[in-house]
Amino acid sequence: MLRFLFLLFITVPLLELYVLIEVGSGIGGLTTILLCLLTAALGGLLIRWQGLNTLIDAQRRMAMGELPADHGFHGLLLALAGLLLFTPGFITDTAGFLLLIPALRRLLIRRLLPTPRAGRGDIIDVEIISHRDHLP
């Protein structure tokens, strides 16, 4: 895992630099910089909007007595999306914008988190009966 992170730490900035140079040579340096700033601003607005919606939905579920466990993971993925969107470059912006898609976040959460399955003994259904209930 450490090697993967090290490789990612080296290759992503080099790839970002290559893409920025290629885009800059095609549309101009100033336009490329403005496009990077625009994606960061747009990403910031979208993250704020989705973060508030996630928080409101989590509060609504808690008020109904449900446990909004997956909302915490949505929040973490939104934070990662924000980090990627504020990092200059088109590759990280693309990954950040992809993490803003709720269906993709749900898919990632389902893939990364193990869910209990019936029949494996992970779920135990119990009913507690008090002795007072059986007294005359």
Descriptive report:
This protein has five helices and no strands. Helix 2 packs antiparallel against helix 3 (69-86) and helix 2 packs parallel to helix 4 (90-99). The protein has 136 residues and is mainly alpha-helical. The model has no long low-confidence stretch (mean pLDDT 84). It has a domain at 36-114. Helices cover 74% and strands 0% of the residues. It has helices at 2-27, 29-63, 69-86, 90-99, 102-112.
Summarize it:
With 136 residues, this protein is mainly alpha-helical. It has a domain at 36-114. The protein has helices spanning 2-27, 29-63, 69-86, 90-99, 102-112.
Largest sheet: none
The helix content is: over 70%
Estimate the strand proportion: under 5%
Order of helices and strands: HHHHH
- Mean of residue pLDDT? 84
The low-confidence parts are none
Q: In one word, what is the shape?
A: elongated
C-alpha-based Rg, rounded: 23 Å
| Structural class by helix and strand composition | mainly alpha
* Count of individual helical segments: 5
Write down how many β-strands occur, each being a DSSP E stretch of 2 or more residues. 0
How far is the first residue's CA from the last residue's CA?
64 Å
Key traits:
5 helices, 74% helix, 136 residues, mainly alpha
